[in-house]
Structure formats: structure tokens, C-alpha cells
Predict the structure.
Amino acid sequence: MRTLRKKHVISRALLTLVALIILLPVVLTALYSFFSPEEIKAFMETRGNYDASVWMEIKLAPRVFSLSQYYNILIEDVSVLRLLCNSAMYTVAILLGQALVIPAMAYALSRFKFRGRDAIFFIVIMLMLLPFQVTMVPNVLTLRAMGLLNTAWAVILPTCFAPFYIFLVRQFMVGLPREILEAAEVDGAGTFRCFIHVALPVCRPILGAAVALSFADCWNLVEQPLTYLAGQTQLMPLSVMFNQLTENPSGVEFAGAALYILPALLIYLYFQKDILSGIQLTELK
Amino acid sequence: MKLKKYAIRGLIIFAVVVALCMFFSGTIRTITTAKVKLLTPRQGKFSEQVELTGKVVFPAAEPVKLENAQGVSLTVTSVKVQPGSEVEEGDVLFTAEIADYEKNMDTLRQSYNEAAGQLADLERKNANLRLRPTDEAWAKAYTALAEAQNVELDARVTRDALLAVEGLKAENGALPEGASEELTEAWAAHDTAAQALKEAEAAMETAERYNISETARAYIVDRQKYEQQMKDYEGQMVDLRALRSTLQSVTAPDDGYITEVNVKAGETFDASGPAYAFSPEKEDPVLRIDTSKTTLTISRGTDVTFDSARGGTAEGSVDSTGVTVSGDTYADVELSSRMIRDLGGSIAMLAEDIPVRVSYRSNDNTTLLPSSAVRGAGDDRYVYTVQQTQSAFGVNSLVTQKQSVTVLAEAEGTVSVAEDLSYMQIAYMEDREIGENTTVMEYVN
């Protein structure tokens, strides 16, 4: 028992240390957002211009506590908010699209037997394994042919079909007890009713996990907007424009980052239990 | 469940804050941002009319002393002129009398009589004394020696005084290098006087060999002394009488203007100081305008309009400029006789300051700005230029930049600066205080 406790202490200490290291960027982001823009600008300009022989300075307290960064973002120049709205718009639209496509497809692949089902599932797995760079060019060609390139739909539509979440939900649905659906059918429920009123409520944990994970994906879109929205800066999400913020220090990077983190953090808090239970359930299968 | 509630509330609050900020940011920005007027400076010749004051000055005026009345106390009986009076040669300026003239005259007469009496006594005492030719020769040598000594003394004093003034020293009896012409002449005069003294001393030495008796010697010396005294008193009486005649009417030496009168009727006057100042007519008076109170660079040719105390108006132009000993700048406008007449005469013009309107127009094109656009004081003058900056997201805003300027001239409402700012936009008439790197908005309408 003592040895076990000792092991726990050591492992907890190590985990705490790792957690602190992982959290450090988030904490620093929050801390630096209260520095004045001038101070943070000066600090950022020291990047790439440091003496390797001495420890790099890490500022832990501002000279003057300031809300100027937030004021600049929220009042002075609401460009960041516009981009944040773009991000929210893409995220909501993609999640809605995925809500229509993914559960239905996963249900079909898990419950129905039809010719070509395995082939379709194989394609889904293949697409899941292929990196974005491989499918990028065909996507561009297709979108151009459809006249959707450089429009918001170019980002929304391809992302609605997310192979990973199809696979995830399908695997969960495969494990559902057949008796539940058969009982519903005996009670007179049709296929659609079984899907809506039986399968989806049962799949709620995995759907919650999928929504949370997909939210993170959509919130952090970079390659898709850069590829499909070339030159359309007004349509870009904040995740893409952050690159410009850090290239030309404007003194509001950290407040922007803090605001950017906040919705993702709240979504994670909302779906925290679903994520954990969904992953656990998937593992049990 | 609690966590979910908090998360949902947080998301709703976040969304509301974002929405409110986007909705009201423009309004808040409009309220909190300084509004300015923007101006593209124009190039032009700076012209301005400024009100200054001037005084009539006679540049050629010289103080006049009554040289023949030095050391004499005078009582002024009447003054015929005042500052600014135009006079002709021979015009009476003032009359004066020598204070205690009769008393002084009596004293001199008494001294003269006393010396004459002593000389008569001497002649009577030495009535039996017959001077031989050798005695006469000795007397002549004695007189010559006394005169030569006086002349040499005067010449030596003059020379040594000039040496002291010029900071030179005579070494080995030679004229030092760097001596002025005056000193050289004084040096030569002393050499001549010293030579004459030597000759007189030699003559006296020769005369001493004549075996002159003590009685004759004393007689000759005393007689010469009394004769000299009588001569001096007589001369003083003549001078006093002549001075009295002169002072009965002090007249103008030439045609011209009396610029200053230092005598007052009924008061005594110390003749060691100047009695009046006189400017010859050929030298015109000038109106000296005090330009130290304006930043305009008044130069030759600038038009000037001025009024006299009596209501007359005249036009002229600046003929010259200068700086007084105290560092104040001035501009002179020559006044012709006609202008002086138009302005009520020189007496009226001299009586008080004359208001002057100076119509300034610069010779070169400069940048003209409204006064409110040029800030700072002294040598640190600047304007705020406005530059368009673009944020990382492409949003344009106007930001002020400090731009130092050199002010050439400044008058009510307009400032002339040396720098060419025609390619810039200048911020002015702000609704609140602005500084460098301040984000501003332009007034609309």
C-alpha cells in the first residue's frame, strides 16, 4: 500500500508539473491581456532579438494594469469582433450541417444492410486517413466548378462531411442493442422515428463528444479558409487573421487571444461530461 | 449540471457583450475620439497689417554745450524753443545771464587793481635802478625760459596722457610702436617743446654769466609776475564781458531742428552739460518704429501708414532697420518736411508716441497656417500632421504626428512657416486636447 501511495505521489507531482507547463501559455495569455498595448508591443518586438546566453525575460506583471487591449478590441477597432463573428458563423453553420449529415449517415452505415455499404464505409475511413492537403486540390476544383469558391459555402459545405465523426458515431451505433430499435418498430415506429426518438437520444454522449470536438475543429479552421477564401479577408475567421496580428504587433494580440479562447472553453465546460463518457463508451466497445 | 448552466450563461453573456460592443462601438468611438479640422496648407506670400508705435528720432542730432561758459553758473532768463522746433541759423534759442556777474567783475577788477598797485610800488621802490643791457638780456632769457617751461609741461602732459590711454610705454625715449597719429603728433610737439626748453635753458645759462645783481634780479622777476597777473585779470574780465554778451541770446548754429532742450526759464544751468541738441536740416528726422513686439520680419521697403496726434495721416516705407543697445529691433521711416507738416509738425510728433500701421508682405512664398494650428512657444514650435494608418485588419484611422516648424512671421490669425507642408494634412481646431500619436476624427460639416 505504501509503495502504491508513493507511486501515486510521484505520478501526481509529475502530472501536476505537466499540467502547469500545458496551462502556462493559457495563463500567460490571460495575464498579458492586461498589459498596456505599448508595453506588450515593446515586449513582442524583442522576439528573435535575444541573447542566447541569458535567460529570456518572462514578464509576470504589467507596469500598469490596463484594460486598453480589451478597449481597443471591443470599442476602438471591432475588426477582431467581426472576425470572431465570422468564426462563430462558420462554426454554427458547420455544426448544423454536420448534425444533419453525420448521425444520419452513421445510422445508415451501422443499421442497414445494402449493397455498397462496406465500400462507402471504406471510403469514409480512407477520407479520414487522408490528410487535408491531399483532398484540397480536388475540393478546390469541385468548388470552382460549382461556383462556390471564395464564398462562405466553400468552407462550410466540405467541412460538414467529417469522416472522423461519421466513423466515431457509427462505431457507437453499431454497439447499440438491437432490441431497443426492434421494440420501437414493434410499437409501430418507422425508420425515421426510430432514428430520431430512439437512436439519437441513446447516442447523446457520443454526439456531445462529437459536437465538442468538432467545435474545436471548426473554431480553429486555418487551412480551409486560406485555401477556399483566398483574398476574401472580410470572410476570414479569426483563427486565420491571428497570423497577421502576430506578424505586425498591434498590442492587442493577447486580449484577442483571450477572447478567442473563451467560447471554446465554455463549450468544453458544457460538453465536458459528454466528452469523457463518450470516449469511455467508445473504448468499452 | 451546474457547470453546464454556467457555461451556457457564460456563452450568452459573451455573445451579448460582443453584440453590444459591435453595435455601440461606433458611437463610443465617436464620443471618445478627438475631432479635428483638417487643413492642407497653402503656399503664399504672408501679408498682414499690424499696429505698432513709433517715435520721431533725429539720427544726426548732436548735443551742444556752451563751451565758453564752462565753470560759470548761469541763470536762464527765457527759452524760445522746445523739442522739435525747426529753426534757422541765428534764431534765438534761449537767453541767460551769468549768475553774480557784477560780483565776479568786481572781484576781477579788484584783483587787477591790486596787481597794478603792487607793480607801481615796485617801480617806485626801484626808481633809482637803471637796468643795463645785460640785465635786459637776462630778463628776456628769464621770460623765454618761463614760457618754454610752460609749453614743455603742456606738451609732456598731453603726450603722457595719450600714452596712458593707448596703453603704451615710452622706452629709451623713442616713440613706441603702434602709436596713433594723434600720439605721434603729440610726441613731435613735445620734442619741439623740449628742444625749445633746452634752447631757453641754454640762453638762460648764458645770461647767468652777466653778473646780474640781486636787486635787479628781484625787480625783474617781481615786475614780470605783476604784469602777468594784470594781463590774466584783464583777459578774464574781457572773457566775462564777452560771455555775457553771447549768453544774452544763444542762437541756432545752422538751419535745422532742436531735438532736445535742457534749459528752463528761471532756473540755473550747469554749463558742463549740453544745453540743447541740434540736428541740421539736411539730415531728415526718422520715425523709429519699435518692431520688437512683433514676430514679423520688417525689412526695407515695407509699407507704413501712420497717424499724428493731430489727426493727419501719412504713408511711407521702411528705409532701414536696426537693433538698439538693449537688443530691441526697430525700423526707420524717413520723414520729409512735407510729411512732418502733414502730421502737424515736428513738435507735435515729438510730443508723444505715434500709432503706426505696418503693412507687411513677405518677399518669398511660405507656408501659411492658421494660428490655432501652430503650437508651442519660443523656439519649440510645431504642428500636428495627420497620417492615415492601417490596423492589422485593414481598418484605417487618422493618427497625429508632431512636426516641428520654423515660424518666420506671426500675426493675428495667420502664421508663416518656412517648411513646405503642402503635402501634409494639419490638424487644428480640435474639440479637446490632442498630443502626438493621438487617434483623431475629422469634423464632418
In short: Chain B touches chain A through 23 residues (CB under 8 Å).
